[in-house]
Amino acid sequence: MYQILICDDERDIVSALKIYLDSPEYSLHTAENGMQAVQLCRETTMHLVLMDIMMPVMDGIEAMRQIREFSNVPIILLTAKGEDSDKILGLGSGADDYITKPFNPMEVLARVKSALRRYMQLGSVTPQEQVLEIGGIRLDDAAKEVSVDGEPVQLTRTEIEILKLLMKEPGKVFSSKAIYEAVWQDDPFGVENTVAVHIRHLREKIEIDPAQPRYVKVVWGQGYKFEKQDGGVR
Fold first, then answer.
1. Could you give the C-alpha distances from 192 to 53, 174, 196, in angstroms and in order?
2. What integer pLDDT is reported at residue 124 of this predicted model?
3. CA–CA separation, 8 vs 208, rounded Å?
4. pLDDT tens track for 108-142
5. What is the pairing mode between strands 48-52 and 151-153?
6. Residue 132 and residue 139: Cα distance in Å, rounded?
């Protein structure tokens, strides 16, 4: 059974999401603010968190940052229509996806199933795929650890999955839609901004100069690729 946390200070929103997600497969937990959400995530192994941004006591962004200190649970932000800056901030702070209010029940179900599927499939690769090493980047997929020139870097699970996708086929250009479809395992409609934000934060963590990247590069009008390095994949 999947443990899902719904965190929102609006009781109508919580009630609606509980109706949408009413299933024998899901055990639903609720919180009214970010502080409660952090505590519940410490007490129970959650498989997914649906988190509002604007809440009293502790907002969703700060709660997500604290959760990311001890857990890589998928987090889907609940955002109001037009709050683009909040969406970008949230994705940059560790969110995996977002759903815009008012909700479409079918979209909620699709995003939840996609996030759970990706989360539960992590680590199901074959042994020869568990460690990728190109140039100074080393990705241990079994341990979900990444290092740059021997120094560990902290990536979100989504960032690790994007990096793994690109590293498995260095030199190949992946469109934003192809990346979203492979990593999020969902229909890739209107996803360019979501992917671009994750790529930007990935670069900030693995590149010496993100403005002039050595590894993850943009191919204008086409997508992104991991630049081939001397020695190739090890």
1. 22, 12, 6
2. 35
3. 38
4. 888 898 888 877 766 433 334 478 899 899 998 87
5. unpaired
6. 5
Domain residue spans in the chain?
A: 2-121, 127-226
Topology at the third CATH level for domain 127-226: Arc Repressor Mutant, subunit A (1.10.10)
Kind and range of the H or E run holding 12: helix 11-20
The predicted-structure confidence for 45-91, as pLDDT tens digits, reads as follows: 899 999 998 898 999 889 998 998 888 888 998 887 655 666 666 67
Q: Are 139 and 164 in contact, with CB atoms under 8 Å apart? A: yes
* Cα 31 to the center of its chain, rounded Å: 21
Q: Is 85 left (phi over 0), alpha (psi -120 to 50) or beta?
A: alpha
Contact 131, 108 (CB under 8 A): no
Q: How far apart, in whole angstroms, are the C-alpha atoms of residue 65 and residue 71?
A: 10
Radius of gyration of the chain (CA): 18
> Are the C-beta atoms of residues 61 and 90 closer than 8 Å to each other?
yes
Task: Write out the two tokens for 92.
Answer: 């940059």
Q: Where are any strands of DSSP class E within 90-150?
A: 97-101, 131-134, 137-140, 145-148
Alpha-carbon gap, residue 223 to 191, rounded angstroms: 12
Alpha helices in 100-233 (DSSP H): 105-121, 157-168, 176-183, 192-206
When the pLDDT of each residue in the chain is averaged and rounded to a whole number, the result is 85
* Separation CA 54–CA 78 (nearest Å): 9
CATH fold, domain 2-121, is Rossmann fold (3.40.50)
